[in-house]
Design goal:
2 copies of one chain form a homodimer.
Chain A: H1 7-27, H2 34-41, H3 45-51, H4 55-80, H5 84-99, H6 103-110, H7 127-141, H8 156-173, H9 180-198, H10 206-220
The first copy, chain A, binds a DNA duplex (30 and 30 nucleotides) through residues 2-3, 6, 8-9, 12, 33-35, 43-47, 49-50, 54-55.
Chain lengths: 225, 225
DNA sequence: TTCTTTTTTTGAACATGTTCAAAATTGAAA
DNA sequence: TTTCAATTTTGAACATGTTCAAAAAAAGAA
């Protein structure tokens, strides 16, 4: 890998990544071979490995790139809406739209849940990407007027990120026409979540929120609001 | 594969499977090679493939075997307890105990969420195993006195199975000492779930259970109680 | 320009999951 | 017992992700 990327090497890298995505779209991730990718890019196999650590790394590079591209649009969603519902709908629908052309590719990423695997969305290696993403949900919560017990509120951004990951996971493998099932899942669970949030302050529901707060504290540590 | 398994071929198959599990435990699933497995079983690589379709198939065979072994104990749990809480605790804790010695191996199974992948817990190919498993949760629900809106009750066994799958997934990758985090997750979420079940009939909570019922009906079809 | 160091590129070699044609073995029929 | 088909076993060959020593190209220093 270059220490100080020159425009030339940057271009080669881009060409190889682009070739990889082409081949992935043409053959599917599993069926695509590194040899074909290299040939498409007009380069030797070794060159592909000079710029990318592994075949999986292409997917990560794609994800990283897509996330950066999405930044302005995500930002717009957040500034142009106020309620948590509007913001969540905006964020999540935007992601679906953005990834839609490469939906099948995302499956290659989702395939690794193991936090020990570097490319897993839960690994230490992907922490920067993850935290950057969670920050958007933190902004979605801020000033939105959500009321929640203080034992849970600080964890809400992370929980929402997790919720969205679950949706994406379902979406990636959703074979219903136009992924209608995913949208149904989104719609109904969103409704349920918003209802639950509305009544979260009710003393009656304390037996529900107390263990939740204890659990979050134990798993994620003590986060202040 | 033999049409009518003779005792001899059955023994060879068992020897190879046992060798595979040995090597998996010694090296971990990913690091274990088919060549070493075959060598350990005192057989050529081809023989391993004569009895097992793939390296992954060993894990499935192990799971299948373990599930069968567990049968009587699971049955005992169900007959010897009555409340849903006791039964769920019994079932799930028994599973953890049974799989504990091969916890790392289970990761190889959990790695495939793709329902299109034959060995996925959600694939068509594993439907028999899955349904057999869900049947236990159906028994856990029956006569337990759980009250739930009729739009949801029929789906409860499936939902509980899903809950347990989630727990297992977390458990498989849980690096906390003695998997303490998993047990905490189990404890707290169980408490929350039981509380939610208790008040599920309250008219106040209809906005929570109505969309849930609609969603389940759309995703899983109309199931009668 | 010429020499030296760094970056980039190459492609053969390697490891490993999987396949398959051929050989060996088994079991039953004659 | 001999013969023949089915079952089982073998191990070389194959495909593909990955590595790496060597070659080529580029960048700097003289």
């Amino acid at each position: 890998m270059p220490r100080q990327p020159t425009p030339k090497s940057e271009a080669t890298r881009a060409r190889i990544l682009s070739a990889a995505l082409d081949v992935f779209r043409k053959r599917g991730f599993a069926e695509a071979t590194m040899r074909e990718i290299a040939a498409t890019a007009g380069v030797a196999v070794g060159a592909a490995y000079y710029y990318f650590d592994s075949k999986d790394a292409f997917v990560m590079a794609f994800y990283d790139h897509a996330q950066t591209e999405m930044f302005p649009a995500l930002d717009r969603v957040l500034t142009e809406s106020r309620t948590l519902e509007q913001r969540l709908r905006g964020l999540i629908e935007l992601k679906f739209q953005t990834f839609a052309p490469n939906r099948a590719l995302m499956a290659a990423l989702s395939a690794h849940i193991d936090p020990g695997y570097p490319l897993s969305p839960f690994s230490a290696a992907t922490a920067p990407i993850r935290e950057r993403d969670i920050a958007f949900f933190a902004r979605a919560v801020a000033d939105s007027g959500v009321r929640l017990p203080p034992s849970i509120l600080p964890y809400l951004p992370r929980l929402l990120w997790f919720y969205q990951m679950g949706l994406m996971l379902y979406w990636v493998y959703d074979r219903s026409p136009r992924q209608a099932n995913t949208h149904l899942l989104f719609e109904k669970t969103m409704r349920m979540m918003l209802f639950a949030l509305k009544f979260s302050g009710l003393p009656l529901l304390r037996p529900l929120f107390r263990p939740a707060g204890e659990l979050l504290k134990a798993l994620y540590g003590d986060i202040r609001a």
